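Whether sequence alone determines local backbone shape is best considered at the level of individual chains. When preparing material for the folding task, we compiled for one chain both its residues and its backbone structure tokens. The sequence in question and its structure tokens are set out directly beneath this paragraph.
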Amino acid sequence: MKIKLLLSLFAISFVGSAQHDVNSFYGTNGSVFAAVTTVNPIAHGSGGTNQVWTFGPFIPLGNATYTYVAPTASESTTYPGTTTVIVTSTTQGTTTTEGRMFTKNNAGTVAITGLNTSGMTINFNGGTSSSGNATLGAFPMVYPFTNADNTVSGTFNYTTNSGTFSGTLTTTIDGYGVLNLPDYNYTGNVTRLKTVLSVTLYVSIFPVGTASQTTYAYFDENDTTNNFKFRSINTTVVASAVGINENVTTLEVDGSMLANNQNALQSVWIQNPVQDGIEINTSTNIDNANISITDMLGKTIYHEKNQNILGTLKIPVSLTKGIYLITIGNENGSITKKLVKN
């Protein structure tokens, strides 16, 4: 059995608007973020003052849109105390998935009451009087801030597996400094928020494994959109008894930076090896693009002018086994990538 991200919806959409503090848990309604990956692992380093963080280069995978709604009557019953549901709609290629995070805001103190995504539910309903809720702490959070919740507990269901869990959640405002994202021509003063969720998984009364998730989110003090500039989420799940053993990292970049990127061509991603068709993927709009495909002898296999690319553009060309080059360009420049057909 394979689980991609046991606690994936715990990818928290914190909002920060001033250096050294994070003012609110909830982001701007309808905000779009780019899902990306990178060849080299992200090294966040230690916290503290006057830090310098530089991340990249990135490869785009898709995008995620966050919206905020009130819980339905059924959701309020299943996840008691919920005041706001964060709905995440994620698109990668032609596939779109939805997840829901259930949250409780009690006079500024925010807790997670539940998570629900395809094939999986997590309910922070352990203990009595909602003591199992995963509490982040009271907002605003000012550097240096720490809140430790040692009573996180509840139930989980994933496909044919179900059980209970218990553990801790630690939330910190652990540093500030300068963030550099060279792919998007971004340099800014940021504050970093870190969360660490660590739980033990049980089936019946027997421990079957562990799950942990560490999130780093960076906020620009001058960003009037109130969204993080960059976020990294690493989840590790080891539960051999039920067939789960994964280590997954998810990276997100503020979508407004991609829209303002002067060289949107850098966001292009093409999956190799090529299957029946060639798919050009980008989370940034590319206007008036010229696309050409050549073989290794320089012979042109495909050529098209004035294409607009956003999301996924499928090229209707059939290639024989071999290596090819695809070039995409407009008035901002051009990029060339290798294609492999097995």
